[in-house]
Amino acid sequence: xxxxxxxxxxxxxxxxxxxxxxxxxxxxxxxxxxxxxxxxxxxxxxxxxxxxxxxxxxxxxxxxxxxxxxxxxxxxxxxxxxxxxxxxxxxxxxxxxxxxxxxxxxxxxxxxxxxxxxxxxxxxxxxxxxxxxxxxxxxxxxxxxxxxxxxxxxxxxxxxxxxxxxxxxxxxxxxxxxxxxxxxxxxxxxxxxxxxxxxxxxxxxxxxxxxxxxxxxxxxxxxxxxxxxxxxxxxxxxxxxxxxxxxxxxxxxxxxxxxxxxxxxxxxxxxxxxxxxxxxxxxxxxxxxxxxxxxxxxxxxxxxxxxxxxxxxxxxxxxxxxxxxxxxxxxxxxxxxxxxxxxxxxxxxxxxxxxxxxxxxxxxxxxxxxxxxxxxxxxxxxxxxxxxxxxxxxxxxxxxxxxxxxxxxxxxxxxxxxxxxxxxxxxxxxxxxxxxxxxxxxxxxxxxxxxxxxxxxxxxxxxxxxxxxxxxxxxxxxxxxxxxxxxxxxxxxxxxxxxxxxxxxxx
Length: 507
Hints:
Elements: H1 3-73, H2 76-90, H3 93-120, H4 122-130, H5 136-161, H6 165-190, H7 195-214, H8 226-265, H9 267-280, H10 282-301, H11 306-333, H12 335-342, H13 351-376, H14 380-405, H15 408-433, H16 439-461, H17 464-489, H18 500-504
Helix pairs in contact: 1-3, 1-5, 1-6, 1-8, 1-9, 1-10, 1-11, 2-3, 2-5, 2-8, 2-10, 3-5, 3-8, 4-5, 5-7, 6-7, 8-9, 8-14, 9-13, 10-11, 10-13, 11-13, 11-16, 11-17, 13-15, 13-16, 14-15, 16-17
């Protein structure tokens, strides 16, 4: 085979990979657009019905639930995805069935155990979080939400491990729909007293939805000895512990930062932080979700081939930056408008905080694809200690900066975390797989990172409207550039035939 044909084959493979990345991102992203629509309705209603204080309580209750789910789940959802994906890769029907059955059953057991533990410790958790016992009943009731979440997590792990991306998107959309139609009436009728019951009802609806789609995956229940079950569990829990530790540290850091804000700035500031945090991750969230949904199983399948592994990471990062960059620049530019749209004018004080979070999200989009190399290779100790370090950096920066600069310091802490984390994870993956950024990604970094810093700085040195005008121009230019680059990377048949003539103008 000559060099020319090899180059042609490599180019075709690259275009196919880019198409797969965009396809999975589009499927998850399409569901995210629906989710965003429901989020606008839900957040707007919560802001009007409860105000910043009530939104702050939602954030605190959600953080408690996230932590309990992470501890109770023992990382089985994440390790289950990896183990199921590996089993599917072997095309061994019996191995697939064994892993599936064990993941389903252990998720039910862990759900019961996690719920009982949260109920048992509800009083000290309420006192530590809220400073009194009056919220203990609400924390105890959250145990039901933890049960439904963990059962649902096991079912979703099966769907994800099988790479049934369309079903995952449907589960996500239906979850957003049920969350909206359940939470608004309950909070309208009961006010703050309806927050926890609505969280429980939302978790139950998601569990029912995920069960409906996971039951479509038929496996023949194998005859399993105690040794077979033990081997499957050992693999799940061994890797799952690293995932659990990571999740606990991540959600623990989020919980700790909320507590720092609550103690130094009050419950209203905690509500502003919750709003800015939710919006900062909204646009980037569908890209990050697509990475975990489709990219992670694909990377796991080739993790022993360093060259292929590094190629996939560079391609994923390139598509992610092109898709996320303009959206994050737009959020930086129109932060007050976004807060009014999703919440209310009462939340305008969170605009600067939202801009700091967007800067951090830009770095997160760049750093996350590299981090999946560590996960795919099963480097548990490296994964664990990088998460420990990230938690210490995030919480430490928040404690220092919130005390000195107020609410905006919590956003600056998030940005500082990802400056540090992006550098660290690059050094690590260089040693693990010899990873280097491609020339195309270095160019994108030199475009979008300075552009983000420029838009952020405009609002510090110029009046609002001139800064908004310049920021809007930068958003339009970055959007056209991203569209032009995506059209160059993807084959024409990746787009609907009706829009191909229009798109050729930008290619």
